[in-house]
Amino acid sequence: MGRGVCAPRGAHAVRGADAIASGSGVIGAVRRFGLSWPMLLGAAAFVLVLAGAVVRLDADIYWQIVTGRWILAHGYVPVRDIFSFTRHGTRWIVQEWGAEVLEAGVYRMAGWAGLALLAALCFGLTIAYLARFLFARMQPLHALILTAVSGCMMLDYLIVRPHELVWPLTALWVGVLIESNERKRAPPWWLLAVMLLWANLHASFILGLALAAVIAVEAVLEAKGQWQPTARRWGLFLAAAVGCALLNPQGWRLLIFPFHMLGMPVLARIPGWQPPNLQRPQVFGLWLIGVLGLAFAGRFILPIARSLLLIGLMFFALQHMRNVSLLGLISPFLIATPLAAQWRREPLARRAAQALDGMVRTPAAAGSLGALCATIVLAGALGIAAVSVRRPRPPAQATPRAAVAALLARRPQARILDDIEFGGYLIFRGIPVFVDPRIAVYGNAFLERYYAALELSQRGNFPALLRRYRIDAILMGPQWPVVRLLERLPQWRRVYAGKVAVAYVRDGARP
Predict the structure, then answer these.
(1) Contact 497/393 with Cβ under 8 angstroms?
(2) Which of 453, 447, 511, 449 is nearest to 482 (CA)?
(3) Which of 104, 118, 174, 450 has the most beta carbons within 10 angstroms of its beta carbon?
(4) Contact 436, 84 (CB under 8 A)
(5) Gap between the terminal Cα atoms of the chain
């Protein structure tokens, strides 16, 4: 028989898939219009999170907008608390000042809808860059799956907050560092601009410095005979990156701020800082099962430096649910090349996926400029239409509008003991607060006493707290035990009760 008859089955599968891919159907149309998978996935992510109302606004957005307004009005970043009557004048490290200025500017121009569009845009850009990185290293089908898993892990914490606004910077930083290491060269100097911007947008820049240090160690270990020039090039880059991180209004204090925050035991009371609930079905649990299963089965092996990074990210994700999004974002960059290399050594498994890979191979190429412009215009129009219908707003449980109106009608200048979840809204209304979500301003001891008082713990001493701060109005969520006590105290009169909040004023003079 001739060679054509004896061609392996895998070759037939590939030719059949290529024939499908080059046909006149949907995939053929994709080729003709010059679309690419990163382009399509980024646009789809942008539109779908807006159409599905996945982008959320939380209580923090209120005080962040006001902070951004204050900075724009005064031309500098505050270093002392300006919003509370309990900690007024206390040192305040505004570590996210750049993001707060951006949020304030977008809100002034486009309201809540503009902020939702901004968050969706950051998510879409992150997905697009991640897909571009993966498609350059993996088979198309695997790149699609890994991009989808990563996006799903980020969705649970897709909130209009500074941490989400720096996702594109995080992806670019990690992707370029790993690509530089794989090509056996030092990172480009332009990447330092990413660190400068990151350090002035969100405190997670400290993670970027740690990632750069570990990847530098990996580069030196793999350099072997060339380890000295490699160490010198990466060392200079790391030193410059730390220098860029110091170019912020807080200086060196910003470098230690994340460690101060993580060392506060009261974080366990804040929903976003609690451990993820693995009893609830979620993509994070499936990710853990998949990655650990592949590792134990010996299906892929990471270099020691990347293994330590992945273990560290898993540890932080198991500690705080907000870190699950970081694990989902960063882990694909770490495992893409080793996983693809292992797959290429598995001929049977590779042939099993070749037919499906052929179906998605055509859009994997770089897209054309015309297709990019058309995609941006179409995605933008769909996104604007989605927010026009959905009309995003901060959550009702953080917006006690009616309760505040009832309270101020009776005590316009009241010193209000407020629920911490309502502090952001009170700041937005220009009302001095007892406490708000800026936990670093208040400190662990103050917040522990506050929570103990609301829970009627003896350690909290609720009556003493009222006397010390001369409280003459209370605004609380109805779930707190202290609400039941206030109903029985004759000197306190309820002026409003609802599902979101209850409000009380003191009868007579202050104590």
Answers:
(1) no
(2) 453
(3) 174
(4) yes
(5) 104
Q: How far is CA 470 from CA 415, 417, 485, in A?
A: 7, 10, 18
For 423-461, what is each residue's pLDDT tens digit? Answer: 999 999 999 999 999 998 999 999 999 999 999 987 778
Distances (CA, A) of 192 to 107, 164, 181: 29, 20, 16
For the entire predicted model, the pTM comes to: 0.88
Q: How many whole angstroms separate alpha carbon 264 and alpha carbon 439?
A: 9
Q: Which residue type occupies 35?
A: L
| Residue range 209-258, pLDDT digits in tens | 999 999 999 999 888 778 889 999 999 999 999 999 999 998 888 888 88
| Cβ(133)–Cβ(124) below 8 Å | no
| Dist CA 468 CA 471 (whole Å) | 8
Whole-number Å distance between alpha carbons of 474 and 506: 9
User: Among the residues of 268-320, which ranges form H helices?
Assistant: 283-296, 304-319
Measured between alpha carbons, how far is 267 from 262 in angstroms, rounded to an integer? Answer: 8
Tokens of 247: 């170019």
Helix (H, G, I), strand (E, B) or coil at 76: coil
Alpha carbons 291 and 311: distance in angstroms, whole number? 11
Question: How many whole angstroms separate alpha carbon 213 and alpha carbon 220?
Answer: 11
Q: Do residues 127 and 42 lie in contact, with contact meaning Cβ atoms separated by under 8 Å?
A: yes
